[in-house]
């Protein structure tokens, strides 16, 4: 992987105004392999919007994003999103068993050609986030909010993205689970030389995440 | 008096039938439903519209020209497409044109098989056969378009997070929305399949009733009805597949993400 500054992943002058008021987002940033970038700021500053733009779920009015020094339009949206996994604040759980939820990404055309699901990896990540392996055969919809949030995170990790975009990943977790999850994220970034961009309000996140850069978004308002 | 196997209704008998409107009006007045004005207006409209269509059909049947017949079917298809999409709001685009293409394609495909191959009148485009057959297909396909489109949008609106999560896994728009598209096709086809189950048990279909009233042997009438029912089922299936196939991509932009009007609730 590239190590020269900004060559791994960077976003330049991402601009988007919000329709409901005169607020707008205008931001640049970068992250390198083995690094965590934390995005903070008051509500309405566009933190979640920024992550969704980086995941190409929303279009900015202007700005560019580069991954491996290549413009985002050089990648197909499906390849981009697989390599740059976005995990939303509200964990999404699909009907069926918990193990089916882990299997789901590997049933897609895009994923089939690239990797197979490793159940050993699933079990390892589940245990490291405090989820019991016995839960694999449980109905996914019966999970609590905290369990669903960890399922969503483990599901994103097993896809083996290069970059994780996490929106408040520990918001639903109790203190112990939060510490375990943060520790997993810290080790994942270091061991695999991946990167994380995380939006968070939680003090624990800011305290325990091995974060190299904090990007504080101001509330920008036109006029 | 029987004429050509059916009993004609005279002007006097037509006037007597208006007494039935009085019953409906009395119910409305008794329960203060406020429907009397609509009822009177509806009765007048129904009478005038049916009389006009009676004269028009007589004229068209006599003319029996293929270009005129096709023009009328296209007009019917246009009206059906407007009607099918009129009540569907909050769509990311106006589905009227794609509905028109869908209805025209499915109606002509199934209608021509039924008229030219199965019923095979002489000439094959016989207006007396083609217009009612195509009309029945259009009426049912129109409802299928309305049901399938409405269900597709409402399902995706209700599952935006799930669709976006699938996109995040690297899914294509089809993979991300196919669960909801299947539900939409199912919603469009269910009334037709249900009607196949209960036909003859719960109700006698209008066309068969009409033919029996017109003096046709019931055993002949049921043959016609059977052909019509499977014709409608085939047309509805094609319609549902076509309309969702042509429209689902409009919920996504060139970045393979949901268009913003689908996200902003």
Structure characterization notes:
The complex is a heterodimer of chains A (223) and B (265). Chain A is an alpha/beta fold and 223 residues long. Chain A has a single domain, classed as 3-Layer(aba) Sandwich (Rossmann fold). Helices cover 33% and strands 23% of the residues of chain A. Chain A is globular. Chain A starts with 8 loop residues before the first strand and ends with a strand. Chain B has 265 residues and is an all-alpha fold. Chain B has 2 domains: 63 residues, no CATH class; 199 residues, no CATH class. Chain B starts with 10 loop residues before the first helix and ends with a helix.
The chain-level structural class of chain A is alpha/beta
Task: Provide mean pLDDT of chain A, rounded.
Answer: 90
CATH topology of chain A: Rossmann fold
Low-confidence stretches of chain B: none
CATH architecture of chain A, by name, is 3-Layer(aba) Sandwich
- The spatial strand order of the largest sheet of chain A comes to 5-4-1-2-10
**What amount of the residues of chain B lies in strands?**
under 5%
Could you give a short description of this structure?
In chain A, 33% of the residues lie in helices and 23% in strands.
List the main descriptive attributes of the protein structure presented here:
heterodimer; A: 223 residues; alpha/beta; five-stranded antiparallel beta sheet; five-stranded parallel beta sheet; B: mainly alpha
Topology of helices and strands:
The complex is a heterodimer of chains A (223) and B (265).
Chain A: E1 9-17, E2 23-31, E3 36-40, H1 47-54, E4 62-67, E5 70-71, H2 77-83, E6 84-87, H3 98-103, H4 109-112, H5 119-128, H6 145-158, E7 163-167, H7 175-192, E8 195-199, H8 203-208, E9 213-216, E10 220-221
Parallel strand pairs in A: 3-8, 3-9, 6-7, 7-8
Antiparallel strand pairs in A: 1-2, 1-4, 2-10, 4-5
Helix pairs in contact in A: 5-6
Chain B: H1 11-17, H2 19-30, H3 36-63, H4 66-86, H5 96-119, H6 127-158, H7 160-168, H8 173-198, H9 206-213, H10 218-247, H11 260-263
Helix pairs in contact in B: 2-3, 4-5, 4-6, 5-6, 5-10, 6-8, 6-10, 7-8, 8-10, 9-10
């Amino acid at each position: 992987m590239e190590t020269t500054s900004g060559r791994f992943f960077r976003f330049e002058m991402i601009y988007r105004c919000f329709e409901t008021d005169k607020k707008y987002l205008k931001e640049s940033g970068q992250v390198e392999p083995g690094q965590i970038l934390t995005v903070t700021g008051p509500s309405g500053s566009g933190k979640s919007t920024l992550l969704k733009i980086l995941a190409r779920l929303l279009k900015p009015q202007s700005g560019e994003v580069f991954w491996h020094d290549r413009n985002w339009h050089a990648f197909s949206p499906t390849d981009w999103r697989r390599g740059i996994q976005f995990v939303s604040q509200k964990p999404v759980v699909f009907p069926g068993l918990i193990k089916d939820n882990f299997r789901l990404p590997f049933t897609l055309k895009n994923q089939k050609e690239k990797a197979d699901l490793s159940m050993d990896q699933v079990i390892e990540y589940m245990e490291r986030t405090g989820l019991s392996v016995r839960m694999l055969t449980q109905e996914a919809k019966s999970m609590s909010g905290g369990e669903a949030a960890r399922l969503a995170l483990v599901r994103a990790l097993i896809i083996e993205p290069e970059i994780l975009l996490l929106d408040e990943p520990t918001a639903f977790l109790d203190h112990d689970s939060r510490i375990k999850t943060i520790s997993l994220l810290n080790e994942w970034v270091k061991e695999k030389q991946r990167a994380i961009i995380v939006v968070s309000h939680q003090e624990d996140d800011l305290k325990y995440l091995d974060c190299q850069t904090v990007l504080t978004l101001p509330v920008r308002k036109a006029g | 008096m029987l004429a050509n196997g059916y009993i004609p209704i005279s002007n006097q008998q037509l006037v007597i039938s208006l007494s039935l409107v009085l019953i409906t009006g009395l119910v409305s007045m008794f329960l203060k439903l406020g429907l009397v004005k609509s009822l009177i207006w509806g009765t007048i409209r129904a009478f005038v519209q049916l009389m006009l269509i009676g004269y028009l059909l007589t004229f068209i049947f006599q003319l029996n020209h293929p270009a005129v017949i096709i023009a009328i079917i296209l007009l019917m298809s246009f009206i059906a497409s407007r009607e099918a999409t009129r009540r569907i709001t909050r769509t990311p685009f106006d589905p009227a044109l794609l509905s028109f293409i869908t209805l025209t394609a499915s109606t002509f495909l199934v209608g021509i098989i039924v008229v030219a191959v199965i019923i095979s009148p002489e000439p094959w485009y016989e207006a007396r056969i083609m217009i009612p057959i195509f009309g029945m297909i259009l009426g049912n396909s129109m409802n299928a378009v309305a049901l399938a489109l409405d269900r597709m949008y409402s399902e995706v609106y209700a599952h935006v997070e799930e669709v976006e999560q699938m996109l995040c896994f690297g899914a294509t728009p089809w993979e991300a929305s196919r669960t909801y598209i299947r539900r939409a096709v199912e919603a469009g086809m269910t009334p037709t399949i249900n009607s196949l189950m209960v036909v003859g048990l719960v109700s006698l279909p209008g066309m068969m009733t009409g033919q029996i009233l017109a003096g046709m042997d019931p055993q002949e009438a049921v043959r016609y009805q059977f052909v019509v029912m499977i014709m409608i089922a085939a047309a509805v299936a094609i319609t549902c597949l076509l309309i969702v196939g042509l429209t689902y991509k409009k919920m996504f932009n060139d970045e393979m993400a949901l268009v913003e009007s689908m996200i902003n609730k």
